[in-house]
Amino acid sequence: MPSVSHARGVLHEKIDASATKPALVVFAVPGSHYQLHLRPEGAVMCEVGKRLVGTITCQARRVDRTVTGGRFVEPVYGRPRRVQGTVMALDARLNALVVNAGGGVAVDGLPLPIVCKLTDARQKASDYAVGDFVGFDVLDGATFRQS
């Protein structure tokens, strides 16, 4: 994935795995109230409260072009369930888009790139272009890989 896929934030919390739930990292987005609960891919070598850089990846149920609304991740606290934003890059080989779900007033103009892997067999990353405004529901299991 291109370097535009690196999200910058703060490690708010590490949540250990339990008998019924996987381990999570809580990725806080500076200048906002976002606290995204993400499954770590590999070790997260950072102290709570310190800056964290890495890639947020999710699987989209279906990606639709949108003409209204802003860039966001729903909900503000918890696992991402819905994302809307602008396509920053695409990777036809991985069938994935990098979507900027930040950059509004709420996040001080900073991008919040999320790598979105397309799961609908009728859709291809090459169907989209940089600058397209898109929205999608997120399947359970969004991940974070530290850079």
Task: Outline the fold blueprint.
Layout: E1 6-15, E2 24-28, E3 35-40, E4 51-65, E5 72-74, E6 77-78, E7 82-91, E8 96-100, E9 113-118, E10 133-138, E11 143-146
Parallel strand pairs: 3-6, 3-11, 4-9
Antiparallel strand pairs: 1-2, 1-4, 2-3, 4-10, 4-11, 5-7, 7-8, 7-10, 8-9
Describe the 3D structure.
The chain is built from no helices and eleven strands. It is mostly beta strands. It has one domain. Strand 7 (82-91) and strand 8 form a beta hairpin. The two termini are 12 Å apart. The mean pLDDT is 92.
What is the end-to-end distance?
Answer: 12 Å
Helix content: under 10%
Into how many domains do the coordinates divide? 1
Instruction: Tally the beta strands.
Output: 11
What letter string, H or E per element, gives the SSE order? EEEEEEEEEEE
Report the radius of gyration as a whole number of Å: 14 Å
Which structural class do you get from the secondary structure elements?
Answer: mainly beta
The rough form would be described as globular
Q: Segments where pLDDT lies below 50 for 5+ residues? A: none
Specify the number of helices. 0
What value does the average pLDDT take? 92
- Report the sheet with the most strands, covering strand number, pairing sense and barrel closure: 11 strands, mixed
The share of residues in extended strands comes to: over 45%
Please describe the structure with a list of short key phrases separated by commas or semicolons:
mainly beta; 11-stranded mixed β-sheet; 147 residues; 0% helix
